[in-house]
Amino acid sequence: MINYIKLPAVLLLEDGTVYHGKAAGKIGTTTGEICFNTGMTGYQEIFTDPSYFGQIMVTTNAHIGNYGVNSEEIESGDIKIAGLVCKNFNIAYSRKQSDKSIQDYFQEENVVGISDVDTRSLVRHIRDKGAMNAIISSEVLDIEELKKTLAAIPSMDGLELASLVSTKEPYYYGNEGAKHRVAVLDLGVKKNILRNFDHRDVYAKIFPAKTSFEEMEKWAPDGYFISNGPGDPSSMPYAIETVKNVLSADKPLFGICLGHQLLALANDIRTMKMFNGHRGLNHPVKNIIIDHCEVTSQNHGFGVIQEDVRNSDLVEITHLNLNDNSIEGIRVKGKKAFSVQYHPESSPGPHDSRYLFDQFIDSMIPETAI
What we know:
By secondary structure, the protein is an alpha/beta fold. It has helices at about 45, 100-110, 120-130, 145-150, 160-165, 190-200, 215, 235-250, 260-265, 305-310, 355-365; strands spanning about 10-15, 20-25, 30-35, 55-60, 65, 85, 90, 110-115, 130-135, 170-175, 180-185, 200-205, 225, 255, 270-285, 290-305, 315-320, 325-330, 335-340. InterPro entries: Anth_synth/Amidotransfase, CarbamoylP_synth_ssu, CarbamoylP_synth_ssu_N, CarbP_synth_ssu_N_sf, Class_I_gatase-like, CPSase_GATase1, GATASE.
C-alpha cells in the first residue's frame, strides 16, 4: 500500500489563512464549513453523526485513530463529515475489538483529511474569527487555485441539508410487540437515539424528512420524535409545518438538536447561526425545573434567539447552558411537547441526560393508566 500519510496537504480557510500538513485518508480535495469538537474520545461516532454533514471537522484531541475502527460504533451508515483536520493521524492501533485502521476506513469511505496541523493554533483562530468555509487538498497545492474553488462554496447559513441525509424509505427499529409506538421524523437521526427508544420498550417507525404529519399519523403512533440533523432550520418550512400539525393534534412530541430548533420555529421563535456553535462532550447545562446540572454532549451551529424565547407566551425555558446562558431546552405550555438543544443519547458523551427519554415515554402514557 502507498504510504499516503507522508504526502503533503494544505488547508485553506475562507479568510485566507493557510495551514500545511500531511495527507490523511483519501488523496483528493474537499470543502465545507470548518468547526471543532472538544471531545477526548468517540471520534468514530463523531465522524458518522449526520449532523456534521457538509462540515470539516477539527479534532482538539491530539490523537485520532489510536484505537482503530469498530464497525459497531457508528451513528449512521457512513462517514458524514466532509473532511478531517487533526494533529496525529494514527494508522497503527492496539485495540483488539477494532476491525481496521482509520486510514483504511477513510480510504474506503472516500474521505479526505490533513494531519500534522497545529490544531491548537487553528482552534484558537476559529474561536476568534468564527465559523467559515474551508478547503483541504492533497492533490492541488496551489493556493490561488484553491481560493477560486473555495469562493464558489455556499455558506451554511440558509442551506437545507436534512433531506440529503434522511432515509429515502420508511423503516422500523425495535420490537414490533413493544408497549409504545413512536414516529421518528428522520432529519439525520443517530442510531443511539433509536437504541435508547428500543431500550425503553418502543417500536419506532422512521420516516423520510419530508413526510407529512397526516402520513405518519396513519401508523397510529403514541408520540412523535423530531430528530437531530444538519443545516439551517429556518430553511425547512416542510418540517416546521409538520411540527405545527403535531402540536395542533395535541400529540406527545420530543425534539433533539435540530428538532429543538424546529419546535421553536413552530412557535414563532426565530433561530440564528451561532458564531462558533457548541461541539463537545463537556458542556454544563442546568435543568431549571428541578435545579440540577447536567454535563452534556453537544453538536450544533444554530440556536434559538434568547429574546424570542423569553418573550414567548407559548413556551417556557427548561434548560440553560451554563457557559453562555443560551437556551438549551423548552417546553410548550399546555402541551406534551418539549425539546433540548443538546444530545441526551450521548454517543459519545456522558449519560446525565438520558432521563429525557423516560420523560417522553411517560408523556405517552394515558392519564387513566397512571
